[in-house]
Amino acid sequence: KMEGGRMEEDAVEYHIYPVNLQEESNLTSLSHIYLHHLSQLEYVRKYIWQHDPISLEMISSTDGNPAHLFGKSRVAENVEDEWFITFLLRELSKKFDVIIRIFDNDGEFLLIEAANQLPRWLNPETSQYRFWIYRGEFHLIPLPKTPTELMIIPTNMTSAAAIELIKGSAVDTLASPKIQAALDDRLTQWPKKVTSDTHHAVGLIPKSIAAILQVHPRFIASAVRYFYYRTPTTFKHAHRLKRFGPCNESDLVPTKIRMTRNLFAQIKTQRATFPPNFPSVPPSKVGSPYEKALDIGCKILAGMEIFYQENSLKTNFKIEDEESYAWDSDSRWEEYKSHLIASRYFQDEMPGSKLYHILESKARKNYLISRQNSSRMTLEDWVPSPSKEIDRILSLPHLEPPPHASYDESDSEAWMEISEEELEKLLQGASRDPKNPKSAEKAEELISDFEKFVGSSSGISGIRNAAKPKREKKPFDINDFFDGLGLSGKNSGNFGNFGNNELDDDESEGDSEDDFEMDSEGDFEDEDFNEISKLMAQMDAQLEEVPGISRQNFSKEDSMREDVLRNFLE
Questions:
Q1: Structure confidence by residue, pLDDT tens digits, 292-347
Q2: Among the listed residues 12, 193, 191, the one whose alpha carbon sits nearest the alpha carbon of residue 102
Q3: Whole-number Å distance between alpha carbons of 333 and 176
């Protein structure tokens, strides 16, 4: 992952639909109202985002999608940001009359969290536009079970149709208590987790940076991120230290720095060789707490310098200044251009050719346009641009850094270590199915086999063991296979769904012969499914020609298991 590159993939998206919206123009004021409400919460003000806070922008109405507010926040490596955003949006739905949909690059992550409680019909293909948050509760739009419901619930769900069903009374869209409870278990950790997930570390940093972090504690996330994703080009800023240098040992102050555990883990585990203009550890203090604090401080110093310089480039350009823009010193442009070269944007033209110049000029214009300030509003909209805000703080006549901290004020780092026994408990807990007594035994067997595999030596022919125990030959048991995966036999036919798909009594009623069935094998036709079925039929015909293999050799149950296994392999 690189800054401005693949980090974009790790993002959560959310759509907020105000109920009974009169005019699209009202969305601008509503976004201000919603964000202002969230910004006043004490735990929001204390929270340090890994990357992006909640942001909102207006989306105009289109066919099947009413006008609403849209947001996208990069969460990078800290998935807890994603759950904190979910918690905040759920709280927002309790305060304001809004219907909210949220998902990430993996899809409906809320459904994945409640996988064991989902109805049998629900899978990634049928879940789109069906799971929502309204008035603090989760709503799941069902499939129609009767001809009457078929007239009300469309087969091809849209946002507009979903919103009408949720705010209406014709269909009960409230998710089952088990689904509500599963998600409550995950979300009730907040807002206490804001405090429990915090780590304090003492670092030796310049007085100027200490003063900046005292005013804007969340800048520490940017410093860590820019240091963590540094490149040879961006690290040149640290060599120059134009903003925070020169830096001598006398300029450093031991400061207690607040950050998330994820940020601390990132900066703690990084290794870097700092340039000569950075403070070094005196021989008499090698191995002391001073060395540890200086290591943290130098990384923060480098990250803050890169953060400042990169944002100065971002805020000081003009679109018409293509010719005068400092392209050579913009690391983001270099990364952008390298992606263009890798994708053969320049059509293998040599630098300096006429076509290369035309393509490069076009790329530069698009790059500058893409870096303009968008219409998005975030929880930090009323904070000026980072580089200008840093300049403002450092221009004050009297900088007041926080009081000096003692080295023993750092929090314990024991949470970064995990024993072999604790790891085994975590693995067993994740694999244990409370409704399947055999799941614990299967999990332990899988862990044991994995440990044996890791402890084995390998050769040209594969894994070789010092002692090869004789194994009793027995036929492959598909039931054991699914049990080992934590899936019971009765649910194996639904393996392609989010999880075990436990059925509540009221949810299973739709599967009786008297009900109007609408399942994946019924009236809902899918072109991709039909195409796969044709391919599978061709494979079956070829298997019939192989001596000794025939469908007559399979029982009806074996045939069903074969289909399940085939779906799993696909």
A1: 999 999 999 999 999 999 888 765 544 445 666 777 777 667 766 776 676 566 77
A2: 12
A3: 50
Report the alpha-carbon angle 10-81-39, nearest 5: 125
Burial of 308 per CB tally in 10 Å (0-12, 13-18, 19+)? buried
Q: At what angle do helices 289-315 and 331-342 cross, to 10 degrees?
A: 70
Strand 68-74 relative to strand 11-18: parallel, antiparallel, unpaired? antiparallel
Neighbour-count burial for 52-67, b at 16+ CB within 10 Å, e otherwise: bbbbbbbbeeeeebbb
Q: Residues with Cβ < 8 Å from 310, sequence gap 6 or more?
A: 226, 234, 237, 331, 332
> Which residue do the tokens 């299967």 mark?
442
Q: What's the CA gap between 134 and 149, in Å, rounded?
A: 22
Q: Is the peptide bond before 246 cis (omega within 30 degrees of 0)?
A: yes
Contacts of 214 (CB under 8 A, 6+ apart): 400, 401, 402
Say how far apart CA 459 and CA 339 lie, in whole Å: 40
Alpha carbon distance 228, 269 (integer Å)? 10
Tell me the chain's radius of gyration from C-alpha atoms. 29
- Specify whether the CB–CB gap between 100 and 17 falls below 8 A: yes
Cβ neighbours of residue 465 closer than 8 Å, sequence gap 6 or more = 456, 457
Give dist(CA 57, CA 15) in Å, integer: 10
Cβ atoms within 10 Å of 535's Cβ, excluding its own = 9
Q: Could you tell me the two tokens for 442? A: 């299967």
3-state helix, strand, coil in the chain (%, to 5): 50, 10, 40
CA distance 72 to 377: 11
pTM above 0.90, yes or no: no
The neighbouring-strand residues paired with 254 are 204
Euclidean distance between CA atoms 294 and 249, whole angstroms: 10
CA separation for the pair 255, 205 (Å, rounded): 7
Asked whether 200 and 256 are in contact (CB, 8 A), the reply is yes
In tens, the pLDDT along 505-541 reads: 444 433 433 333 334 333 444 555 565 566 566 666 6
